[in-house]
């Protein structure tokens, strides 16, 4: 009988290239022959590094060989731990900035403020992928702008919510669907795939005041949440559009200030932090209705929805409601913002190729979602928690899940073995136990192993563009402070743990690298919740030895941006751009 190992090495490599990452890892410890074969194959090493780093290849015009791509990938991973940025550039803000901003896929957007009040009268954006040849592009809609959502890689799309005068005494909000790359020189360009590039949304009376908007775009869907914080009679309104047709597929109206943020978990699932229920709702577009809240009507004449609702539009249902720990008496959650960057891709999406930029991008499925909370009674406190997107997907799809730790019971490799083959180790999987009612999961059943809590009073959590992939960057506000880059990639954590042995940290020329173990304290004892909260999700912390003075640090897939404010500490004056990757 023919043995598998009798096949030519070239054929084995070709076969193994189709195996999932976990199977390749098993083959490494099956025999010395297979270990040598995999370790010496550029293709298999490339696949191992690509998947363990939770990255995918950027669609680009690059002609790098596989060996060159492997070197770029391994060098880039090392740079993040060593803070060895490849380029540094200061970008001056040449306009009066407003509070609207975003950073995604190498595109940095900053609103242009009016000299009269808080209005945003335009948008400026810059493509960081161009390196040092950075130019501010301008978009002018000739009307005030309220907020925006962006999808760069899939659609080259920017969705801008604008405001204009409506009926007497009313303002009207419109949704503008624009092509980003061609919206320059103050001239907006309608997106060619949008059948309705301008969609009237709602009219509301002047006295309702400021509205808060959240917008995210994934695949064919655009989710839009509108909240009026100053009017208790106004319901929160959420719509999910099929943006190319302009039709509304799902809708929800809820009690005032139930929601103030949203994110996509996958192409067809929304994450909705619920302020009133102290819960995280997972709302799938594809499952049968598990639970849908009753629609809330406004009290009095405080809003006219302008959208054309088709007969096919249905209430958005909640598939899972993940409860947070019970808070102490008198303690409430006042605000809860969430972000999961990069956004997921639609299953049939083909990312747009780019001529210049990084070779690799973080895999959306293997990333973190970060939640920033403002809590308090008399005194307000800021706290944050991080959860892996894979854990939330696991909770969404499983009715009865128990963690399987069988892989973790094997002997850990030595440091010498790990140096030769860093993929001999398994990550610390954090699979939740989800026994109980299918739509309601108490904290004790899901949170302890999957979540990491942080006190963030000294971190500027009003900025949300601080994470990408498995990493989250922070800095103390307006003080000389190190930059902290926390990495929640389970493979990197296990590799560093094996390298450290029994020690907790090691140093490079520019950084101190530390492992945060399960159960190490992250919330103050007196704090916010009724019972002590355990944080078992491990992470790798990279702290720069140099102190920086920034109001905040933003983070994208390959960049750290240091935000410099003016002398009054109000407006963005400049942005220091650190690139940690090799561009194509």
TrEMBL record:
InterPro entries: F-box-like_dom_sf (IPR036047), F-box_dom (IPR001810). Residues 1-47 form the F-box domain. Pfam families: F-box. This is F-box domain-containing protein.
């Amino acid at each position: 009988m023919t043995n598998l190992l009798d096949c030519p090495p070239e054929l084995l490599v070709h076969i193994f290239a189709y195996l999932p990452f976990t199977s390749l890892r098993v083959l490494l410890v099956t025999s010395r022959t297979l270990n040598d074969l995999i370790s010496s194959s550029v293709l298999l090493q490339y696949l191992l590094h690509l998947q363990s780093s939770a990255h995918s290849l950027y669609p680009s015009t690059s002609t790098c060989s596989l060996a060159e791509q492997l070197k770029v990938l391994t060098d880039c991973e090392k740079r993040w731990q060593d803070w060895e940025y490849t380029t540094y550039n200061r970008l001056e803000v040449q306009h009066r900035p407003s509070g609207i901003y975003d950073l995604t896929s190498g595109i940095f957007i900053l609103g242009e403020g009016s000299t009269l009040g808080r209005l945003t009268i335009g948008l400026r954006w810059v493509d960081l992928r161009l390196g040092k040849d950075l130019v501010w592009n301008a978009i002018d809609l000739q009307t005030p702008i309220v907020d925006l959502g962006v999808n760069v890689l899939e659609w080259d799309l920017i969705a801008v919510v604008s405001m204009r005068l409506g009926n007497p005494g009313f303002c009207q909000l419109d949704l503008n669907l624009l092509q980003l790359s061609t919206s320059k020189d103050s001239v907006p360009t309608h997106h060619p795939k949008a059948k309705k590039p301008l969609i009237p949304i709602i009219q509301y009376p002047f006295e309702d005041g400021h509205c808060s908007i959240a917008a995210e775009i994934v695949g064919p869907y655009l989710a839009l949440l509108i909240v009026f914080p100053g009017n208790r009679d106004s319901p929160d309104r959420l719509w999910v559009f099929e943006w190319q047709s302009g039709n509304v597929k799902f809708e929800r109206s809820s009690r005032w200030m139930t929601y103030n943020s949203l994110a996509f978990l996958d192409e067809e699932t929304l994450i909705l932090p619920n302020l009133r229920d102290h819960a995280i709702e997972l709302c799938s577009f594809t499952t049968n209705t598990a639970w849908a809240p009753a629609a809330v009507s406004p009290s009095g004449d405080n809003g006219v929805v302008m959208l054309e609702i088709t007969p096919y539009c249905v209430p958005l249902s909640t598939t899972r409601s993940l409860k947070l720990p019970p808070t102490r008496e008198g303690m409430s959650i006042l605000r809860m913002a969430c972000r999961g960057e990069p956004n997921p891709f639609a299953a049939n999406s083909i990312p747009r190729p780019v001529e210049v930029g990084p070779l690799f991008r973080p895999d959306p499925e293997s990333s973190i979602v970060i939640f920033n909370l403002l809590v308090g009674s008399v005194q307000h406190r800021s706290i944050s928690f991080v959860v892996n997107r894979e854990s939330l997907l696991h909770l969404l799809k499983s009715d009865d899940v128990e963690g399987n730790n069988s892989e973790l019971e094997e002997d850990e490799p030595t440091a010498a073995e790990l140096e030769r083959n860093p993929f001999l180790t398994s990550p610390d999987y954090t699979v939740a136990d989800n026994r109980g009612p299918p739509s309601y999961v108490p904290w004790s059943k899901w949170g302890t192993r999957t979540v990491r809590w942080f006190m963030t009073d000294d971190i500027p959590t009003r900025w949300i563009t601080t994470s990408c992939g498995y990493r989250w960057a922070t800095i103390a506000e307006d003080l000389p402070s190190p930059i902290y880059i926390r990495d929640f990639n389970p493979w990197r954590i296990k590799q560093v743990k094996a390298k450290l042995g029994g020690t907790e940290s090691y140093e490079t020329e520019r950084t101190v690298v530390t492992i945060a173990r399960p159960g190490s304290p992250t919330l103050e004892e007196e704090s916010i919740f009724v019972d002590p909260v355990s944080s078992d999700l491990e992470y790798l912390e990279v702290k720069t030895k140099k102190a920086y003075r920034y109001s905040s640090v933003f983070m994208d897939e390959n960049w750290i941006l240091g935000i410099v404010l003016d002398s009054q500490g109000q407006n963005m004056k400049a942005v220091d751009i650190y690139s940690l990757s090799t561009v194509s």
